[in-house]
Specification:
The protein is α+β, with helices and mostly antiparallel strands. The protein is 31% helix and 37% strand. The chain is globular, with a radius of gyration of 20 Å.
Amino acid sequence: MKKLFLFAITLLMTQFALAQTVDSKINKIRELYNQAQEVAKWKNTDEWMEHGCYSFDFSSRINYAGGGVISTNTEVFIDVSDDYEGDNFNMPSPWFVREKSSRASDLYRELLFDTKTGNLIFCYQRCMGESGNMVEQRLYYEKGKLLKAVPAKIENTMYSLSDPLDVAKTIKEMVNSLSSLGY
């Protein structure tokens, strides 16, 4: 009986330690997200230009036969490597993205990338549910794997939501192509 009790206590302590680890990782991601929001609010100001902040915006407007007009506006904030020793010196990489897509309803999404690894670490998305209410979700990632989703799942939205990892891959490919455009 004592062995079973000791095993149960050990298992609970392990689970508690893992939960604290996940919570500490999420708190660090939230801190990085708040910093990104703070920097992004200065976009196109004198302070923005003085500190060497970079971004590009793109917009699209597509008229689908069945779905009507879909307009998308995307702001991509980029980081430029200053690692003189590496092969990526002066290469741009995304660190924060804000995207708004409109058709029958709006989809708003933000992506945050780890500036050291280039991996997606956070996604916030908000859209209209079928019942007319706004639904939102926060997704936390570590090394390309989902760490936590709040809420765990959203269903019955007016949008077919793309996998944030796929969206992040597309954004990274677009930013990588900047160097071939003469960036």
